[in-house]
Amino acid sequence: MSEHPLLLTYSLAALEPSQICWGLFSAVVLVIVLSKAAKKPPNYPPGPPRDPILGNARQMTGEHIELKFTKWGKRYGDVIYLQVLGQSLVVLNSYTACKDLLEKRGGIYSSRPRFVLLSELMGYGDVLVHQRGGPRFRKHRRIVQDQFSANSLMSYVGLQRKEVYTTLIDIGNAPQKFEKHMKRFPAGLILNIAYGYNVRNCEDPFVTIADEATRNTVKAGGPGAMLCDMFPMLKYMPAWFPFAHFKRHALFTRELVLKMFDAPYQWTKAQIDDGTATRCIAVDLVETLRTQSGGYDPSKTIDEQDIRHITGVLYAAGTDTTDSFLMSFMLCMVLHPEVLEKAQKEIDQVVGNDRLVEFDDRDSLPYFDYVLKEVLRWGCPVPLGVPHQLTTDDEYRGYFLPKDTTVLVNAWAITRNEELYPEPEKFNPERFRGKMDSEAAHQVDSIFGFGRRVCPGKVFAEANVWLLMANIVATMNIEKTTDEMGQPMTPNGEYIGSYVRHAKPFPCKISYRSEKARATVEHTKLLHS
User: Where does heme bind (predicted)?
Assistant: First the structure.
């Protein structure tokens, strides 16, 4: 027996410090998880079987997890319960469950989980989308909602037209770069509204910074990221530690994120000081900052950090999803020329070919609204959205939902509801004919979120893509390109990404429908320069 302590000492001495730390950490995790497992399980909603300790972690791998959630929903129901390393997760697969919990009980379902990696290490903590609640969240939400009120939206019409006409010219001049033009469109619009800044091309420095930050943020997903959120103590792990790649990457990304929020703001401040600034959200907020008086009120007083993150979130949250939507539209037009032709005929009859489509034409173009709604449903740019968190124990349909449960909206499952959308994988705008005020149309809006977390820029974003898409249809032909043998090349229609879905790059042929269409676009752009 006396040899055992000596043997243990030699064994420990042979281990690397990192191995000892991970061993101790694993032991702590094991104790925590086993202590939870030892308790009598409450009546949770149904869900797939769980492994000891890991729970459902092993099953939640792969890029398109929303597909797995949808499959489970058909077996276990529209409210699914999962556990990952002892943490509770509920997936809502139906519109009814989302309305019942996230809207009717929004007071306890509107918080966010603690995003250790994104919020605390990468610098997204003060962004409206990720804020957990409190005075700063309410202040940011109020300001953003004011910027997208009905009165504010009217003031953006001129900028919307300008960016649409610029994009049409870009596509006409370089149709092979249509992906870049689709990315530049939302960037140009939002940077102008937020900072009064004109984006001239996709190589613009502010666009490049934001793209780098977004790309590296997406890359941060993986086992290290999940562990960091499950066990916040890992954020204190030294970056040089052998297993701390997630920490090194997070700190690198943090510099990009802070630059994304700060660089355009500093540009606008310089314009204000020079007396050359144009009216925009940042200018309005800086004026408020410089003229406010009285004591500090966290729910009302503006500081520079507020301005950086209020303006920055508009770009971070709005460009990637809009780009995804526009690329889905282009893909659908390539794959379904009959839909494009029908939409062109409707626009020709209503608008003619002497001018471009305007917002006032929308009520007279019902079929094109069906197309927009079906692109949104079929493409589903944000299949899961940002998680909610339950702030207190709750009960739903007789099932127990514990405090701190992470709640996910499976918009993919909602927009694939076979009762509302027969043959859901088929692209069919006619499914909305006579139903634009029905449940079928309303449930597509699940993509924009629910309750207090619904996207405040929904109406603005829809108007932007509607005007651009309508004018592309009015003036352009979009066709399959051909290979070296002259055979048409049909895109495979595949998507990549999980948080925001993007159509895989695909070739197509884009050209003006006529010289008259080209002249109309160029003349209209000249008038609005």
Answer: 455
